[in-house]
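Dear H.,

Thanks for agreeing to be a second pair of eyes. The structure we're designing against is below in token form, covering all 381 positions.
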């Protein structure tokens, strides 16, 4: 694998960086404070084609691949992690499985509207009682003629209140365990019985919308099953392999911001008559961050490259997510430390990075779950 970016990817990176610097970064503190993203962020991400990076050209995307999406995600998250998670769901968690498992009719119906940003997407797997143990979900899908009726509750759903299209996982037969789970494409419009609860008040990524969902006799046409009935859990995990690369990219982006801001502050801030950057204790922190960033970027791009090449990448995606998320948290802690008291208040963005970094160790599989996935892979004969 060649980690030198192709000309196409380099240009994409430049474009993403420009958007991040000019539009996302200046609005990030306000989005955090007001707990909502400006509509302009969504519009600009759509205009730049960032929702269509996994979508084939005939359905309105560019199909540049997971490496392209990872590069864009690193730049976007460097500026605003709330925007980053929104892009990750819209650009990967829904179009990824739709492209792979969708019928021609499903692709034709949804992919162009996802790429253009016309419909907001959400991925609804987690439930109040089933997070890490997602194979035990209790939301039911009962077949009634040519439709299914969905009943249950989903928790922590990113973009759940705004979404026009939700990928909902439900069980058609609990006695089959995870093999009874099916994935459904649920359109909000016309779906009576689908309602969003309160918006969660979060530690970080506060600009992103996170809600609980209630499903009461939500009617879904049988043709909206994504993939095969009973194959939903497999589809969910396969999708999360891709999503985890996205969260690893998010963590790498936050890490990059921590390093960049720390370098600037360490050069400017003087103590004992010289910039603190000249103190070895500070230099070591900066060096550690630089090493972590380099390693995280490589792990992200390697996992993305394997996924794009159609090669096994479950272990690599988990390794990338585990390493990058823990590295981002180390870096955020040290970035606050380097800023001293200034890092502990909202005048400097490192305070936000510190809060935003934490989620990368939790969603799309906690660090504990990543270690379980990696152990399973390396212990396999
Ligand atoms: C901001 C936010 C956005 C989210 N967005 C979405 C979304 O869009 N869609 C969606 O479906 N979900 C979403 N989630 C849910 C997220 O994926 C879950 O929170 C996560 O998988 C953990 O589940 P849990 O919170 O129920 O924790 P639990 O599973 O209850 O875990 C609690 C603790 O126990 C540990 N633990 C659990 N099982 C094991 C084990 N076997 N071995 C060792 N340790 C274990 C965990 O690592 C953790 O430390 C989101 C969550 C948040 C906070």
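And this is the sequence the design step returned. I haven't edited it by hand at all.
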């Amino acid at each position: 694998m060649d980690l030198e970016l192709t000309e196409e990817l380099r240009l994409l990176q430049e474009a993403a960086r420009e958007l991040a610097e000019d539009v996302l970064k200046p609005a990030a503190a306000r989005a955090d404070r007001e707990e909502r993203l400006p509509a302009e962020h969504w519009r600009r991400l759509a205009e730049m084609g960032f929702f269509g990076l996994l979508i084939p050209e005939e359905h309105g995307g560019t199909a540049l691949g997971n490496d392209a999406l990872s590069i864009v995600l690193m730049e976007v998250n460097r500026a605003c992690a709330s925007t980053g998670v929104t892009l990750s769901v819209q650009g990967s968690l829904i179009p990824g499985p739709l492209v792979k498992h969708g019928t021609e009719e499903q692709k034709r119906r949804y992919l162009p509207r996802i790429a253009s940003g016309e419909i907001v997407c959400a991925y609804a797997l987690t439930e109040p009682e089933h997070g890490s143990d997602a194979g035990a979900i209790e939301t039911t899908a009962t077949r009634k003629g040519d439709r299914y009726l969905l009943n249950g509750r989903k928790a922590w759903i990113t973009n759940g209140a705004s979404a026009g299209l939700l990928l909902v996982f439900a069980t058609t037969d609990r006695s089959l365990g995870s093999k009874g789970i099916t994935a459904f494409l649920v359109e909000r419009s016309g779906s009576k019985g689908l309602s969003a609860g309160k918006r969660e008040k979060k530690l970080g990524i506060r600009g992103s919308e996170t809600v609980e969902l209630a499903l009461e006799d939500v009617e879904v046409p049988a043709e909206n099953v994504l993939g095969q009935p009973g194959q939903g859990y497999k589809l969910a995990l396969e999708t999360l392999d891709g999503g985890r690369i996205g969260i690893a990219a998010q963590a790498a982006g936050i890490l990059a911001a921590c390093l960049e801001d720390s370098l600037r502050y360490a050069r400017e801030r003087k103590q004992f008559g010289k910039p603190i950057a000249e103190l070895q204790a500070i230099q070591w922190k900066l060096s550690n961050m630089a090493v972590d960033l380099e390693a995280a970027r490589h792990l992200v791009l390697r996992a993305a490259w394997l996924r794009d090449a159609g090669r096994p990448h479950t272990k690599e995606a988990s390794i990338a997510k585990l390493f990058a998320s823990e590295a981002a948290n180390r870096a955020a802690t040290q970035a606050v430390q380097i800023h001293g008291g200034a890092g502990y208040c909202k005048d400097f963005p490192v305070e936000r990075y510190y809060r935003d970094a934490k989620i990368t160790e939790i969603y799309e599989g906690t660090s504990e779950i990543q270690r379980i996935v990696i152990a399973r892979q390396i212990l396999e004969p």
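Two observations from my side: The beta strands are 121-124, 140-144, 147-158, 165-171, 181-187, 194-199, 210-221, 225-226, 270-271, 274-275. The chain has a mean pLDDT of 97.

Warmly,
E.
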